[in-house]
Amino acid sequence: MTTSQVSTQLPQDDQDLTGLLGKHLIYTYSNGWKYELYIKNAHTVEYRVHPSKGVPNPLTGRWVKDLRAVTARLGDGLYSVAWVQVAGTCASLVINTQQRWLHFSGFLAKWAGDNPTPLAGFQNEHLDEILRYRDIGPIAPQVQEDLFATITFVEDRGVDNEEVIACPPEQVPDGFSTAPTDPIHPLGRKVLSW
Q: Average pLDDT over the chain, rounded to whole?
């Protein structure tokens, strides 16, 4: 009996992240929740949670800067971005830039699901408070979330741009989080087709 070996190039062999780094996205989940994400660099993301249609989002108004993340290229136009929130929540996104969708898998800390109020607002200004809640817990049993979203807006803002996520969601210009599918954004910036 002979054994054959299959030679496969793994995605880890090609980690060209230029198709994702510096991108600024707005996307809407199937339940109506609206989020904004900036891939600041290969190890950092920033995001805002906008008012949503449909199911109320208890995290509306939340915004986070300089969140440590792991980013990987999984294939042509397919990326993974994952992080652990200070609250103890684990989040993972698979982003398909060619078909303009993403998938979120999250394991939400039990205390955060039971009492999301401390998580609303600018996280970076309340780290000590969030850490106290996290340490008191409980973290488990975690609540699992599994959602698909449509990417409604994308632009290239370059890496390490401090102006992309620089204010709370309620202070962005009118029409901003309703990012259009037409080629010009309300702020006059060109929408990328990827």
A: 86
Assess whether pLDDT exceeds 80 at residue 129. yes
Helix residue spans in the chain (DSSP H): 110-114, 127-136
Q: What is the DSSP letter of 173?
A: P
Main-chain phi, psi angles of 2, to 5 degrees:
-110, 155
The residues with which 146 forms a beta bridge, in sequence order, are 105
Query: Does residue 189 carry a pLDDT above 60?
Result: no
Is 124 strand, coil or helix?
helix
DSSP H helix total and E strand total for the chain: 2, 9
In the sheet with 23-29, reading across from the earlier edge strand, the strands are 63-68, 44-50, 34-41, 23-29, 143-156, 101-108, 90-96, 78-84, 70-75
Nearest to 78, CA basis, from 39, 117, 35, 20:
20
